């Protein structure tokens, strides 16, 4: 999943706050670069439940899972066998709106977590397929959310709303 949060950048002259989105990345256990939490899912859980579990285990965050961003393919050296000699894997990626950062989590001794802007995260990301999930999937999804929220706000303050016509 791609854990994210909104951060206030400062107060505007009208008393509102400018918000930016940041994504949470974690160090890998096997080399340089940063990644997003990922992993397989158990037989008794959905892929969404697995994404939430991996976010807790690897990054120490809890939150709300959102719509699937898409499926991304990658090669895994640890999953190479006679059925899949290339170790081809398919990952479902989800945005996770972070509600809580845990002080203690299962992999905290093996991983470091850090918040980044989307451009920073793209530069720091170790895997090309995760960059694609962030650049294409998350950025598109986020833009759609912003448009949807703007339409809702405009509808609520529309000069032609039924409340004004009574």
Automatic annotation (TrEMBL):
Database matches in InterPro entries: DDP-like_NUDIX (IPR047198), NUDIX_hydrolase-like_dom_sf (IPR015797), NUDIX_hydrolase_CS (IPR020084), NUDIX_hydrolase_dom (IPR000086)
Hydrolase found in the keyword field: yes
UniProt keyword list: Hydrolase, Magnesium, Metal-binding
Cofactors demanded by this protein: Mg(2+)
Domain Nudix hydrolase positions: 1-138
GO cellular component, one term: nucleus
Domain of life: Eukaryota
Gene Ontology molecular-function annotations: metal ion binding; pyrophosphatase activity
Similarity annotation: Belongs to the Nudix hydrolase family.
PANTHER family: DIPHOSPHOINOSITOL POLYPHOSPHATE PHOSPHOHYDROLASE (PTHR12629), DIPHOSPHOINOSITOL-POLYPHOSPHATE DIPHOSPHATASE (PTHR12629:SF0)
Entry protein name: Nudix hydrolase domain-containing protein
Organism expressing this protein natively: Malus baccata
